[in-house]
Amino acid sequence: MEGGTQVSIEQRRVTEYVLRIADQAGYRAALIEAADGTVTPWPRFAQTVRAAARGLRRRGLTPDDTVGVLVRDAARHAVAVHTIREAGAIPVPIRLEPGALEPGADGTADIAAQLKACGARLMITVDELAELASQAADRSWVRQVLAFGESAEAIGATPFSSLLEVARHGQAAGNGADATSPRSAELVPADALELAAIDPGGLSARLTSRDVVVAGPPCGSGPAYTALLDFALMSGSTVVAASARDIAPAVRRYRGTAAIVCRGVEVPVIPAARVFLVD
């Protein structure tokens, strides 16, 4: 448990750093969804994360609780992970094995096993996976499933948007930072966070706020994928979430300068040194 606590502290420091960047980044894009062109500016990203974190705490999430994350794009992955950390809990990416959604396939057993292995009591997913997630939750210790998307409630999950409702003290949950959030604190160098152990290939030294990082769906090692997104956001880069088959078109459309993809996905329009592979 001591090692897990140390990891959670380091992860929270990453989120604190990212939110400080958001507070000073102006109205640039933090996240872009290539599928429909939705843009999330840095201020809105920070507001969403902080408000949703308050919502999780109101729902009983306590420090060092574990939350499973099962989503299908980089944008929602980033929002879910940083919300969980800002709430003081530990996000654990859940793998969706190939073929899990095929007709007749039973993907619930593997997901339930992952949820039980990490001791998750809550899960964040997306509406198109909500039914599968709920079935897996029933076979694990998860007591609540939250889902991004308009149809989440109809499928039996709690809409993620419900976390953004007006707080009990009357302030709109989406406006402004928590009183305890270090909005005015100066940025510290990323290497001061002592996160070299989770820095795949020194990504933090290779990206800047001028970079556009096209990221494929969560794949391979969950911690490695999360760390790559972390360092992209810590560098102030814009992250473009794209499906695996739309990586190359997204790179061309948004003038991507780097990419995060699962091994085997080719990105010919970016120099190989700036294509970060997740095994």
Q: pLDDT under 50 segments (min length 5)?
A: 167-200
Question: Which class best fits the helix and strand makeup?
Answer: alpha/beta
Helix content bin:
25-40%
As laid out across the biggest beta sheet, the strand order is 2-1-9-8-10-11
Calculate the mean pLDDT score and round it: 83
Beta content: 15-25%
Mind summarizing the main beta sheet? 6 strands, mixed
| Alpha carbon gyration radius | 18 Å
Q: What is the count of β-strands?
A: 11
Q: Figure out the total of helices.
A: 7
Question: Could you give a short description of this structure?
Answer:
The protein has seven helices and eleven strands. The chain has 279 residues and is of the alpha/beta class.
Observed structural traits:
6-stranded mixed sheet; alpha/beta; 279 residues
Question: Can you walk through the features of this model?
Answer:
This protein is α/β, with parallel strands linked by helices and 279 residues long. Helix content is 34%, strand content 17%. The chain contains 7 helices and 11 strands. The protein has a 6-stranded mixed beta sheet with strand order 2-1-9-8-10-11, sandwiched between helices. A 5-stranded parallel beta sheet has the order 4-3-5-6-7, sandwiched between helices. Helix 4 packs across helix 5 (130-138). It is globular.
